[in-house]
Task: inverse folding
């Protein structure tokens, strides 16, 4: 019996020591994992771009961005009738899938002006300008400009892609934040990135809108015929009217002088004082 018990006790002792070693190794692994928990980085680039992999991914995306060109134009046309010209403009706009964004009409004694701000698809811009130049009237002035915003669009796109990467990293870090201080710092970073992403996306939408739809400022001008209102009246009537106008002008002049009567009352007093001062000086 003793020979059997001694080996059994020896094996049991060995198993207990091994289990203890395993527990110590598991605890050591847990300590290492806890120590490796991510903490809020002092700068975004230090944590998220250690090897430059994210920047290369954005560079690949920029290769697919097409040219971004914004076209704008101004054209002023003299027409015979504003209403007829406006009807023709509406027909031309329908053919080119364009629309009027703003309309302003001015009617003076000398002329009539209709100013239109037109948005037209990028591909139909040149066709629309040629249609207005040939079919409406006499072109007084025309100005067309093209602005290449590809570089700006690319720059904003790269920054937006990087900010989205940073945002996802911070959201992952927020899930494993160790304490309240770290959570607050990460949440502040997330709010700032979300605001910057909204601004960047808004800028890209604005550029896309200006690229896809060009802007044309069209001004229709009509000069009124200058005719005298008294051209059909006889000489006698016109002579009498001239006398009447002259008399009215004289009366208005006289009334204007009378309105200065307080100054006329002060004038003799000023003369008397001036004479006394001159005598004393002599």
Result:
């Amino acid at each position: 019996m003793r020979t059997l018990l001694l080996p059994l006790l020896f094996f049991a002792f060995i198993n207990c020591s091994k289990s203890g070693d395993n527990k110590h190794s598991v605890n050591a692994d847990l300590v290492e994992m806890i120590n490796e928990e991510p903490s809020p980085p002092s700068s975004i680039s230090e944590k998220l771009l250690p090897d430059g992999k994210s920047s290369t991914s954005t560079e690949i995306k920029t290769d697919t961005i097409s040219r971004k060109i914004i076209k704008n134009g101004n054209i002023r046309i003299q027409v015979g009738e504003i209403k007829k010209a406006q009807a023709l403009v509406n027909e031309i706009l329908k053919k080119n899938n364009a629309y009027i964004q703003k309309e302003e009409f001015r009617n003076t004694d000398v002329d009539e002006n209709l100013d239109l701000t037109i948005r037209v698809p990028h591909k139909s811009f040149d066709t629309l300008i040629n249609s207005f130049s040939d079919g409406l009237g006499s072109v007084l002035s025309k100005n067309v400009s093209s602005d290449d915003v590809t570089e700006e669009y690319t720059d904003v796109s790269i920054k937006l892609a990087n900010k989205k990467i940073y945002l996802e990293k911070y959201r992952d870090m927020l899930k494993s934040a160790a304490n309240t201080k770290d959570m607050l710092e990460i949440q502040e970073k997330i709010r700032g990135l979300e605001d910057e992403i909204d601004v960047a996306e808004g800028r890209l939408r604005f550029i896309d809108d200006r690229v896809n739809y060009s802007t044309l400022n069209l001004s229709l001008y009509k000069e009124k015929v200058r005719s005298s209102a008294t051209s059909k009246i006889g000489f006698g009537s016109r002579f009498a009217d001239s006398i009447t106008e002259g008399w009215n002008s004289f009366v208005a002049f006289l009334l204007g002088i009378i309105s200065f009567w307080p100054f006329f009352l002060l004038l003799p007093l000023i003369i008397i004082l001036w004479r006394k001062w001159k005598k004393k000086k002599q």
The longest strand covers residues 111-121. The chain has nine helices and five strands. The CA atoms of residues 167 and 191 lie 9 Å apart. The first helix runs from residue 2 to 35.
